[in-house]
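Aim 2 progress update. The chain analyzed this quarter is reproduced below.
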Amino acid sequence: MYTGNYLSLRQSRESLPFLGKLLVDGKYQSLWDYDTTLLPRGARKWRKKARQFAQRYLRPLALSVDKDPYSFDPAQLIKVATMQGFQTTVMPFPIGTASLTSYYKSTILQIAVIAEEFATECGGLALLLLAHHLGYAPLLLSGHIPTWVRFLLPMYLKAAWFGKSTTMAFAITEPEAGSDVEDSDGAKNAHTQVTATPTGGGYLLNGTKVFISDGAIADKVTVFAKLKGEGLDSWTCFLVEKGMKGFSVGRREKKMGQRAADASELIFDNVFVPKKNIVGKLRGGWALNQNVLNYSRPVVAAMALGHARGAFERALDFCNSKIYMGKKLIEYKEIQYELADMLILLMSARMTIWRSCAHFRAVQSLSSISKVYASDTAVEVCSRAMAIMGDSGIIHDFGVEKALRDARLTQIYEGTNQINRFAIIEHQWNTDILKS
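Predicted structure tokens:
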């Protein structure tokens, strides 16, 4: 329709002299291809590989597992993802599978581009695979060499070199302590109840964690608990392993979105954890938790972007095939305006996320900005995609209403967007930006 217009730039470039032609883009690639060229070589590789993986393995499952999360064996999908290197991109080669040169520019960019591709096909399956990195993060970010040697390196090398993954989960949320433990000000009054009591050779953990992604399938869980008789400043991270006496899985939540990844209750009833299973240092859990969230929020932002992109792509396909009053929907100017606005929002969100990943270390305000903006944008784009499609937008088999349900969760976990706004200001509080 457009490329055949003799007045289009692509066609009219032929009337320009040689040097003029060189300055006119004649490729007309997709925006996905243009964006990919901006990435470092290693991140480009993972983005392309992740799209192929998602289309081959996640797309066929997406709708069925959303209806029935227990209709498939997650272990098989995790095994395939591990064999292809997706479960070990938190660390570079030779320990993990991340590209070394790209990793030194940004520790999280490669995971972020993978997250977008996975979530474009299915938010639940994306979370199923990505929550594993969150469980590993405290081990890595503790900066504690004994922790690395004892736990991180053996598990990572086994997965990266032999394809044998250890599924991890991350447990901070409790029945009366959710977003408040993700905010340094609100945490002062958080009602945490998971407690570690000193005993011979270790600690006894008691209490309950809730809404833990992959909690029911995890082999190991990084659990944050306060010490008996002390406050949240005593929070310590413990590595709890499946099979430990007194450790069990309780209720598995029925969720609105991202259904393929379970959110489970974890119960600790006098669970003995040896001292060697302390992650990092005693009473070092609060700072560790905050640092983990700073690294994970851009990945959540990338997932939100993927949900929105998936909704946009499905709406675009619909508009290219749906006939209304003798014309395809895509031929109506009003539809073109709406699709263009959605693309503008997608591009803005992606650039915000990639900007937040432009540093080797995570930056608190940038991480929270990307999470807030991308997740709010995702909900808007998904809603607009549904509006374009009319009645078809609410039909499960089109996948757009699913994308909206999946996107809504990204506004909540890893700190609600309201909590993340506090994190943005907290990080800038003493800078010149606010001094004036």
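The chain has a mean pLDDT of 92. The two ends are 53 Å apart (CA to CA). These observations will guide the mutagenesis experiments scheduled for the next reporting period.
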